[in-house]
Amino acid sequence: MNRLAGRTCVITGAARGIGKAIAETFHREGAVVIVTDIDVEAGRATAEALSAEFLPLDVTSERDWQNLAEAHPAIDVLVNNAGITGFEAGAVAHDPENATLQDWRDVHAVNLDGTFLGCRYAIRAMRARGSGSIINISSRSGMVGIPAAAAYAASKAAVRNHTKTVALYCAEQGLNIRCNSIHPAAVLTPMWEPMLGNGEDRAARMAALVADTPMRRFGHPEEIASVALLLASDEAAYMTGAELTVDGGLLAGSAAAPEGN
């Protein structure tokens, strides 16, 4: 229970979902957790439950990152988790033909610009110690095309590649700062709510969303948190520039339905 004992870990988008699960897992493993989010009320609630510090952070704001750097000029782990699909406000067109330029930019500002700013902050905050772990939450959607979510898929693909760039840069600098990405798929978090809805067909929608997943279920935030813990710990000391998929087998290919289904 002490795999991160004494390490200062900053997690973005930690008020709920995957970010919250990572904060809880890191706390259990002895980390000094810094919870950040734009949702001040939920972020403070998460932090209070862990006896952790909360800092408001809009990942698209350079000023907010500077404030974080002033408060925590040295850290051991950063998890760039904050992200959006673009569907948070309801159904909007996100296909390559009908997506608006502003919607495209809004998604990239959070998912890609936020990750860039986070990596830049982390490298500087880890340089003095010469070591650290940067964990970028990408997506299965960053590894395949998603016709109905063009901006999301493109931004997550860019996060995947920027992870490798950061890993190589740190190695060239002689820094033991590792940078890896996690690629979840079909993980049941509040991000899915606009697509699932609350009507009578919610169960049917959920079933349809996981029908092509070989494991036939949604993933849980805690399952992503366990992978983040591995990458943050010394157990992954020789891993950098790597990408780990946690997708119930989606990228492995199709699977026959179990007997009786």
Uncertain segments:
none
- Classified in CATH, the superfamily is NAD(P)-binding Rossmann-like Domain
Task: Give the mean pLDDT.
Answer: 93
Structural class: alpha/beta
Features:
Rossmann fold; 7-stranded parallel β-sheet; 7 strands; alpha/beta; single chain; globular; 261 residues
Describe the structure.
The protein has 261 residues and is α/β, with parallel strands linked by helices. The protein has a single domain, classed as NAD(P)-binding Rossmann-like Domain (Rossmann fold), CATH 3.40.50.720. Helices cover 41% and strands 15% of the residues. It contains 8 helices and 7 strands; from the N terminus they run βαβαβαβαβαβαααβ. It has helices at 17-28, 40-50, 62-71, 101-127, 150-172, 193-196, 202-210, 221-232, and strands spanning 8-11, 32-37, 53-56, 77-80, 131-137, 176-184, 243-246. Strands 3-2-1-4-5-6-7 form a 7-stranded parallel beta sheet, sandwiched between helices. Helix 5 (150-172) links the parallel strand 5 and strand 6 (176-184). The longest helix is centred in the middle third of the chain and has 27 residues, at 101-127. It is globular.
